[in-house]
Automatic annotation (TrEMBL), chain A:
GO terms for molecular function: NAD binding; NADH dehydrogenase (quinone) (non-electrogenic) activity; quinone binding. It is a peripheral membrane protein. It is found in: Cell membrane. InterPro entries: NADH_Q_OxRdtase_suD, NDH1_su_D/H, NiFe-Hase_large. It catalyses: a quinone + NADH + 5 H(+)(in) = a quinol + NAD(+) + 4 H(+)(out). NDH-1 shuttles electrons from NADH, via FMN and iron-sulfur (Fe-S) centers, to quinones in the respiratory chain. The immediate electron acceptor for the enzyme in this species is believed to be a menaquinone. Couples the redox reaction to proton translocation (for every two electrons transferred, four hydrogen ions are translocated across the cytoplasmic membrane), and thus conserves the redox energy in a proton gradient. Keywords: Cell membrane, Membrane, NAD, Oxidoreductase, Quinone, Translocase, Transport. NDH-1 is composed of 14 different subunits. Subunits NuoB, C, D, E, F, and G constitute the peripheral sector of the complex. Belongs to the complex I 49 kDa subunit family. It comes from Cytobacillus solani. The keyword Translocase applies. This is NADH-quinone oxidoreductase subunit D. Its EC number is 7.1.1.-.
From TrEMBL, chain B:
It is an enzyme of class 7 (translocase). It comes from the Bacteria. The lineage of its organism: Bacteria, Bacillati, Bacillota, Bacilli, Bacillales. It holds the Pfam family Fer4_7. NDH-1 is composed of 14 different subunits. Subunits NuoA, H, J, K, L, M, N constitute the membrane sector of the complex. Binds 2 [4Fe-4S] clusters per subunit. Keywords: 4Fe-4S, Cell membrane, Iron, Iron-sulfur, Membrane, Metal-binding, NAD, Oxidoreductase, Quinone, Translocase, Ubiquinone. SUPFAM superfamilies: 4Fe-4S ferredoxins. It comes from Cytobacillus praedii. [4Fe-4S] cluster 1 binds at residues 48, 51, 54, 100. This is NADH-quinone oxidoreductase subunit I. Belongs to the complex I 23 kDa subunit family. Its EC number is 7.1.1.-.
Length: 366, 141
């Protein structure tokens, strides 16, 4: 028997599979991970502290840069929080535009995850297919908001732009196209034996662990907990749509893969219905004062982002800037279970486990 | 059967071989961008009324401006003297064009800002005035 010594291995912060600047300090014994210590903060910009000197409208572009893969949900959560405090009723057309934009963002976000996860596992072509479809969504959102990633589209009380002519039809046409492509993804990846061996039974945790670590989103639903804020605590106009909450029972990376891909289908269902119900005309911005001052007090709202529950807490002392602003950033919470999952695993499984958590470092570091 | 899934995947790849190319030949051809695209701002000095709203709303404080008295003594108000945008920190969020009451500052479709030195990213009034290609047609919703 060869005697091996424990050794420290740094993964990241400049490692392509960490999806940003995430560092892991691994204590390894041969090929087995004995202890994993995540080091975060390389992308910390202090959004919450900066927000204390900013007006509410000025904070919106900062939220774009937290979860930069699905910025629409971040835009929504801050607007929703201020609207809740000020008791603003958002016009119907604006609500539909918001939901369509958010669901498109969710599809785009899951496509990025699908592509990059497969890339992490060594498959190159799924990324190209996923990004082909994502590019279509990004182009649509670009037409709507004027930017490809940092949309800055929503405002307190509505949205900045109305849908351009023919835009809703484009979204409507995109839905069957995407359904078709999803079948292709399953053909390309889901049945692939190499992929199945890399994800089945890897990174498994139980329902209790998921709840104890306060995981949310696909990371929670993969253990069989049926919890989706769009269904359980409907915000905006989500109660008008018919869709299912996708769950799986096994709690491994394979389950998370299926939950995310099926969630794209559910988002497409919502998009289809939203385009159908889209009001022909109407206001896109409620009557709000030019300088927005949230009343004295506090509020916490939470919504379902592609990565989990994103929350926004505002404490206001009645000024035009918040006294304290806090975001509950789902990636940060989802990442907490990582050291536990990695213990005893081999290095080869490390990327497979980390990738399945679906973290965005802009959000982890805030 | 081992290998069946791989073969199915390969079939999908082969099916996609004949599909239309989705990529752009970007540096050789200009990128197709929508009218709403938020690129480098164009500034109209004659329209500006020096109300300071753009500088106040800017989330990164990248706009600096000064005004002077109107040279015609019969006219009230100020006219713009200097107007600088620091593109090292500008995030092209569009808030300055949103608040401008006279549409003196509007977005264009130009986005190529790479420079060899940081100082060159500091754009003044003359530069922003000359940036008059591909300007956004519809500026407010």
């Amino acid at each position: 028997m060869l005697r091996t010594e424990e050794m420290l291995l740094n993964v990241g912060p400049q490692h392509p599979s960490t999806h940003g600047v995430f560092r892991l300090v691994l204590k390894i014994d041969g090929e087995t991970i004995v202890e994993a210590k995540p080091v975060i903060g390389y992308l910390h910009r202090g959004t919450e502290k900066l927000a204390e000197d900013l007006q509410y409208t000025q904070i919106i572009p900062y939220t774009d840069r937290m979860d930069y893969v699905s910025a629409m949900t971040n835009n929504y959560v801050i607007c929703h929080a201020v609207e809740t405090m000020m008791d603003i009723k958002v016009p119907e057309r604006a609500e539909y535009l918001r939901v369509i934009a958010m669901e498109l963002g969710r599809v785009a976000s899951h496509l990025v995850w699908f592509g990059t996860y497969l890339l992490d596992l060594g498959a190159t072509s799924p990324l190209l297919y996923a990004f082909r479809e994502r590019e279509m969504i990004i182009n649509m959102l670009n037409e709507l908001s004027g930017a490809r990633l940092t949309f800055n589209y929503m405002r307190v009380g509505g949205v900045k732009w109305d849908a351009p002519e023919g835009w809703i039809d484009k979204v409507r046409e995109f839905v069957p196209y995407m359904h078709e492509q999803l079948k292709g993804y399953h053909m390309l990846v889901t049945g692939n034996e190499i992929f199945m061996n890399r994800v089945k039974g890897i990174g498994t945790y139980t329902k209790e662990d998921a709840l104890n670590y306060s995981l949310s989103g696909a990371n929670l639903r993969c253990t069989g907990v049926k919890w989706d804020l769009r269904k359980n605590e409907p915000y905006s106009i989500y109660d008008r749509f018919d869709f299912d909450v996708v769950t799986r029972e096994t709690g491994d990376a394979w389950a998370r893969y299926h939950v995310r891909l099926d969630e794209i289908e559910e988002s497409l269902k919502i998009l289809e219905q939203a385009c159908e119900q889209f009001p022909a005309e109407g206001e896109i911005l409620a009557k709000v004062p030019k300088i927005i001052k949230a009343p004295k007090g506090e509020a916490f709202v939470r919504i379902e982002s592609p990565r989990g529950e994103i929350g926004c807490y505002i404490a206001s002392d009645g000024k035009k800037e918040p006294y304290r602003l806090k975001f509950r950033r789902p990636s940060f919470y989802n990442l907490q279970i990582l050291p536990k999952l990695l213990e005893g695993e081999t290095i080869a499984n490390l990327i497979s486990i980390l990738g399945a958590v679906d973290i965005i470092l802009g959000e982890v570091d805030g | 059967m081992l290998g069946f899934g791989l073969a199915k995947g390969l079939k999908y790849t082969l099916k996609n071989l004949t599909k239309e190319k989705p990529t752009y030949e970007y540096p050789n051809e200009p990128l197709p961008l929508p009218d709403r695209f938020r690129g480098i701002q164009k500034f109209y000095p004659e329209k500006c009324i020096v109300c300071n709203q753009c500088a106040n709303i800017c989330p990164t404080d990248c706009i600096q401006l000064t005004g002077k008295k109107h040279p015609d003594p019969n006219k009230k108000g100020k006219i713009i003297d200097t107007y600088d945008i620091n593109f090292e920190i500008c995030i092209l969020c569009d808030l300055c064009t949103e608040v401008c009451p006279t549409e003196a500052i509007i977005m264009s479709n130009n986005f190529e800002l790479a420079e060899y030195s940081r100082d060159e990213l500091f754009k003044n009034l003359e530069w922003l005035d000359e940036n008059d290609e591909n300007i956004r047609k519809v500026n407010k919703a």
